[in-house]
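Late entry, written up from scratch paper. The run itself happened at the end of the previous shift, but nothing got recorded in the book at the time, so transcribing now.
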Amino acid sequence: YRANYEDGDFLIIQVDGRDAGRLYVHRTEAELHIIDIALLPEARGRGIGTRILNDLLAEAQASARTTRIYVETLNPARRLYERLGFRAVEEKGLHLLMVKEPRIS
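Output as recorded:
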């Protein structure tokens, strides 16, 4: 990831001082690209991922940027992305490019 997104943010997600997952994000003037978000099994199903995604979507909305993420077609998280307003725009093998455009006021 660092070779392709050297100016990206590579973050460890922590909950109550304990590592709970990772988040890789690349920001450009036009886009917020969620390169990777993954939670450890014990951190899943607690709303952590939803909160993080909502924060990223709010950031993208405030700066009028499109948010994008690639997801495996059979990944259960795809339903979460769809609930948050992402839509599939391109299929590449086992992956879908999903995007959420900012709302125009």
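Residues 23 and 31 are 16 Å apart (CA to CA).
(Scratch paper discarded after transcription.)
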